[in-house]
Amino acid sequence: MNPGQLLSGYTLPVFACAAAIAALHWLHKKQVMTSVDVNLIYPAEIVEIPIEQVSGIHQGALAITRSDPGDNLDLTRNTPIWALVEQCDREGQAIAIRGGEGIGKLSTTGEAAIYSYAQQLLQENLTQLLQPGEKITVTIILPEGKQLAERTSNAAFGVVEGLSLLGTTGIAQPLSAPGQLEAFREELQTKRHFDCLVFCIGENGLDLATRLGIDTHRLVKTANWLGPLLVEAAVQQVAAILLFGYHGKLMKLAGGIFHTHHHLADGRREILTAYAANVGLPTPVLQTLFTSSTAEAALKYLREVDIQEGSNWVNLVYGAIAHSIDQRAQEYIFKQCTRQLQVGSVLFDRDRQIIVKSEIGSTLLTHLC
């Protein structure tokens, strides 16, 4: 490995699946496994995952792994992941997947925050190991999940009481380590043949874009490096970029902030309040917006005002923000490299519901879907 080369690791769903495989093997053969093979599906490769402990428990088996995200500044590093597998007699599906202690719940439905990739990973890896007619219940447990969740923005995306099993791939790229920007640039360069690319800051954007039917090959995960990657896209002569992101992150571009990590620059409430003032919101509403604890709380308040007064402030304010994001992004690109690049934006809320599409964003999204 070169001195500056970063090591990738694996996402939480991979370790949860590995633990479940080891527990199911113990149920079948009463043998402890020190490692198991997991088919990542995305990408199509099989990897070996260490197993820390396996034991029988009641009528089932419990196996433990530990998260290894590679050279990524990930707060889940070395956290234990448990999988309890129990044989059962029930009608319906062969494998039932449940969230135990430390797995977050969706605030809207109360369901476990175990998303589509994790579900698919568990189903496909475990199904081929089942005995004829066998049915099992798999409970994933993160003993440190609640504690770790307090240090994340999960609540902003409607996940409470723990961490989510989120991701669209089994590989955890080193997105927070030094050198990540160069890795992002290299990925973007492999996609320069597309007329339009979709920039997603994080996994929530990637997941929603995929569910909307956007070709996954067009998706580029940017983390907080929006400014440099917009410039790189222009240098690579990509014709258009759709910025697809959570409103609390993406609105920073409307304030001229092109590296969106909160440790470097925030200004969300100032930006939101300024645009709200510019479209004519009354002073009491502006004061409440400015003192809101989060961007999501401010959005919720604006929606309540619209319901109570029959107004249209959300569309007016966020429409202005989206238009400004497009404009300022294009100005930023031209200033850095004197190239023209069409930029559109789509902003969504914590429930992954689209709040607003800019005019350009709407056109690009229609083309992509």
UniProtKB/TrEMBL annotation:
One Pfam family per UniProt: CbiD
GO molecular function, one term: methyltransferase activity
Family: Belongs to the CbiD family.
Domain of life assignment: Bacteria
NCBIfam families named in the record: cbiD
Pathway, per record: Cofactor biosynthesis; adenosylcobalamin biosynthesis; cob(II)yrinate a,c-diamide from sirohydrochlorin (anaerobic route): step 6/10
EC number, UniProt record: 2.1.1.195
Keywords per UniProt: Cobalamin biosynthesis, Membrane, Methyltransferase, S-adenosyl-L-methionine, Transferase, Transmembrane, Transmembrane helix
Entries under PANTHER family matching the protein: COBALT-PRECORRIN-5B C(1)-METHYLTRANSFERASE
GO biological process terms held by the UniProt record: anaerobic cobalamin biosynthetic process; methylation
Name by which UniProt lists this protein: Cobalt-precorrin-5B C(1)-methyltransferase
Reactions listed under catalytic activity: Co-precorrin-5B + S-adenosyl-L-methionine = Co-precorrin-6A + S-adenosyl-L-homocysteine
InterPro entries: CbiD (IPR002748), CbiD_sf (IPR036074)
